[in-house]
Write a structure and sequence with these properties.
Layout lengths: L4 E6 L8 H4 L17 H14 L1 E5 L8 H10 L6 E4 L7 H11 L5 E8 L5 H5 L3 E3 L8 H11 L1
Parallel strand pairs: 1-2, 1-4, 2-3, 4-5
Amino acid sequence: MNTKINIIFLDIDGVLARYPGLLNKYKEDKRDNFGPGFNDSCVEFLEEIVHQTNSKIVISSSWKRLGLERLKTIFRVRGVDVDIIDTIPLYGLPRGEEIQLWLDENDKYDIDKYIILDDRIGDLWESHGDRFIKTESQLGITEEIKDIGIKLLS
């Protein structure tokens, strides 16, 4: 019998890479060879959600265009301790629809619960309701967001 897992659909810009950081306003959010750096606090909060809730990551960010192996490399080199299992499809549909397609097409995973961490609403609230947790672009994942994520996945 498979162990149930939780899924975190993860946007990157405005969630791990804070937008003012993308504009070089946060000195601690440095760029590297891969592009905009991830904020250390945002990474720590994400790791806490993942480890406390037996969650796996599916990248829903536009960074998905880099491909799964490249994304895994970026996260590993940056020291982010999470298990990225996939990216949502590149169909050019609204993000909420692409997430739903991923859920529909991936019954190989025994998914218990899921959340979406994203800084843009788009169709996410309409299509996924309280599974969508909106971050503020300039803050990324905060302690409050972390607590909501853990509660929804527990």
